[in-house]
């Protein structure tokens, strides 16, 4: 605070207060007017002390759209661009295999070590999502994004040491785990932040940039690991360090950007929130967004019930602990129903990506391509999806989210089915699979890019403002835990069972995915969180089924009580089956011991 001293206001001859309204603020500051006489008895001009706030984080000059774009791109670079690290390890497998064989001696052991290296980052993503909840609960959106980006940088540096330090594979695996933790934090808190920074009309496009970054990362990983760049036994480890070129500028931009205005409004830090809003949005958009946020706060206040003591007096509710708040939110049917839909949407949208991005080079080699041609085929496969994801940004908000999710999934089912048919023994000799499979994989990844953009836009939009971090984190933990298990066994499954057998459950799940989303997923494009929330019932999911089963079971038990002979017969059959099972188990155990 500073004091402005003003002399020479002769009209103010009495003691009083001067009210001053600071521009851009709703606060009114009062200053005491001192009226005193000089030594000769004549009145002297009064001193007017005006206390004004220190200007902190004043909005810098320039275009709000440019500032918003830089922050959006930086968050995407620190999160989804790091899929680069998954696609690069796919193409680097042939170049890295001599080093892994020198360490693990057999190809089987080398493959297992490589699977652990690949999947460790995905397990880290799940951990990072959980840490993001812990930090966001107390410190908002920006801090987890900054800390996560720093961990991204540390993880990449550790991965680069794989061939230069003792136990380098272990160090690199830990580096990828740390990198995954960082990305999980940025992915969770960053996606929530991205849903809160832009005006409503641009929200879908901003969230769609995440998939655009993912596609660019996949393409970059495929490119940098070619033999012409770093895809050689001497240089392969350096290919995994390329993300540092985008992570360091992204970290600088994020550190200098303000906190999410919506979060600041929810924390009743209105002056900071208005300054942050002017950083990201134009004056016209600011006005509309602030009105929307205030309506959202009012809606939230109406949902919050005050605690009442035994005498009926209401008490002010203090901030609950994290575990308590999570349990309370899970009891709310609106949150739990939105969470179940979000889990389904995001966990299974990337089934095709888990397969093609992680192990496409190995798949193409299995179908007859040489190592170099398999790498080139993987690169060409990634080009169309990158072009489509960038082009879609220009018109993303002109389409329904559900359409962009369901239609590409149906096309993915068709392409997967064709891959199964053409790789069957009957047709494998008719058409060359080393040509057919890369083409079908290219189409599959292209439509997956469209559905992925829609899924990453839908998930944060399903939750109310206070639930976005928690909901997005739970979704991220489940998705990446599932992906870690999947990638940890896919390479072995592909080499053992073949692509056609692996694709069968993928195609079946994509069919279920399209049907479930068509029936239960609400449209979120152009809608406020309050409008989307009205789609979900406050009743906890499964309540009606539980009551129905409870009624039926009580009726069935009453029937059994009236029929004691039937109960005895059922009991005898169950005991007989258990005895037969135990006898069979005992005989087999005795035989194994005898051997």
TrEMBL record:
**Which subcellular locations apply to this protein?**
Membrane
Tell me yes or no: is Cell membrane among this UniProt entry's keywords: no
A cellular component term from Gene Ontology for this protein is: membrane
The membrane topology of this protein is: Multi-pass membrane protein
UniProtKB keywords: Membrane, Transmembrane, Transmembrane helix
GO molecular-function terms, A-Z: hexose transmembrane transporter activity
Task: Return the InterPro entries for the record.
Answer: GLUT (IPR045263), MFS_dom (IPR020846), MFS_sugar_transport-like (IPR005828), MFS_trans_sf (IPR036259)
- Keyword check for Transmembrane helix, yes or no: yes
Q: What is its main location?
A: membrane
Q: Which residues cross the membrane?
A: 68-85, 116-136, 143-165, 236-255, 338-357, 377-396, 403-424, 430-450, 565-583
**What protein is this chain from?**
Major facilitator superfamily (MFS) profile domain-containing protein
Q: What is the lineage of its organism?
A: Eukaryota, Metazoa, Ecdysozoa, Nematoda, Chromadorea
């Amino acid at each position: 605070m500073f004091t402005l001293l003003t002399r020479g206001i002769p009209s103010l001859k009495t003691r009083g207060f001067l009210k001053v309204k600071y521009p851009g603020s709703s606060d009114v500051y009062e200053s005491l007017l001192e009226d005193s006489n000089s030594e000769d008895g004549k009145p002297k001009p009064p001193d007017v002390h005006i206390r004004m706030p220190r200007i902190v984080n004043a909005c810098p000059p320039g275009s709000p759209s440019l500032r918003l774009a830089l922050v959006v791109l930086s968050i995407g670079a620190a999160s989804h661009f790091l899929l680069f690290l998954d696609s690069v390890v796919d193409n680097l497998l042939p170049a890295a295999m001599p080093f892994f064989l020198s360490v693990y001696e057999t190809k089987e052991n080398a493959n297992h070590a490589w699977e652990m290296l690949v999947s460790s980052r995905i397990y880290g993503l799940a951990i990072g999502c959980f840490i993001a909840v812990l930090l966001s609960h107390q410190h908002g959106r920006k801090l987890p994004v900054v800390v996560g980006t720093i961990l991204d940088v540390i993880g990449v540096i550790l991965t680069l040491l794989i061939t230069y330090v003792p136990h380098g594979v272990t160090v690199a695996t830990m580096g990828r785990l740390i990198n995954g933790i960082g990305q999980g934090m940025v992915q969770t808190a960053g996606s929530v932040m991205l849903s809160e920074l832009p005006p409503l009309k641009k929200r879908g496009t901003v969230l769609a940039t995440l998939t655009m970054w993912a596609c660019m990362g996949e393409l970059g990983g495929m490119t940098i690991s070619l033999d012409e760049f770093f895809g050689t036994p001497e240089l392969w480890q350096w290919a995994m360090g390329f993300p540092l070129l985008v992570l360091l500028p992204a970290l600088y931009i994020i550190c200098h950007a303000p906190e999410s205005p919506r979060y600041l409004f929810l924390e009743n830090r209105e002056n900071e929130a208005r300054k942050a809003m002017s950083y990201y949005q134009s004056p016209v958009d600011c006005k509309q967004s602030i009105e929307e946020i205030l309506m959202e706060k009012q809606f939230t206040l109406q949902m919050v019930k005050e605690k009442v003591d035994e005498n009926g007096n209401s008490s002010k509710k203090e901030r609950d602990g994290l575990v308590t708040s999570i349990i309370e939110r899970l009891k709310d049917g609106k949150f739990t129903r939105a969470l179940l839909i979000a889990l389904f949407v995001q966990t299974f949208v990337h089934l095709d990506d888990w397969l093609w991005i992680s192990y496409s080079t190995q798949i193409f080699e299995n179908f007859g391509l040489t190592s170099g041609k398999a790498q080139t085929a993987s690169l060409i496969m990634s080009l169309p999806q990158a072009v489509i994801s960038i082009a879609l940004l220009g018109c993303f908000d002109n389409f329904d989210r559900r359409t962009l999710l369901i239609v590409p999934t149906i096309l993915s089912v068709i392409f997967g089915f064709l891959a199964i048919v053409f790789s069957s023994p009957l047709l494998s000799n008719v058409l060359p699979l080393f040509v057919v499979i890369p083409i079908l994989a290219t189409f599959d990844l292209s439509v997956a890019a469209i559905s992925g953009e829609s899924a990453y836009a839908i998930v944060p939009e399903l939750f109310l403002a206070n639930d976005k971090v928690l909901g997005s984190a739970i979704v991220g933990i489940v998705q990446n835990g599932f992906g870690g298990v999947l990638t940890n066994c896919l390479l072995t499954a592909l080499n053992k069972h073949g692509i056609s057998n692996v694709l069968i459950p993928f195609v079946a799940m994509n069919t279920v995915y399209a049907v479930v989303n068509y029936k239960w997923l609400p449209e979120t494009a152009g809608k406020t969180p309050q409008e989307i929330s009205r789609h979900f019932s406050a009743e906890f999911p499964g309540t009606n089924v539980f009551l129905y089963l409870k009624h039926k079971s009580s009726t069935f038990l009453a029937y059994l009580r009236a029929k004691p002979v039937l109960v005895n017969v059922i009991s005898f059959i169950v005991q007989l089956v258990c005895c037969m099972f135990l006898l069979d188990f005992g005989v087999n155990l005795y035989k194994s011991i005898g051997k």
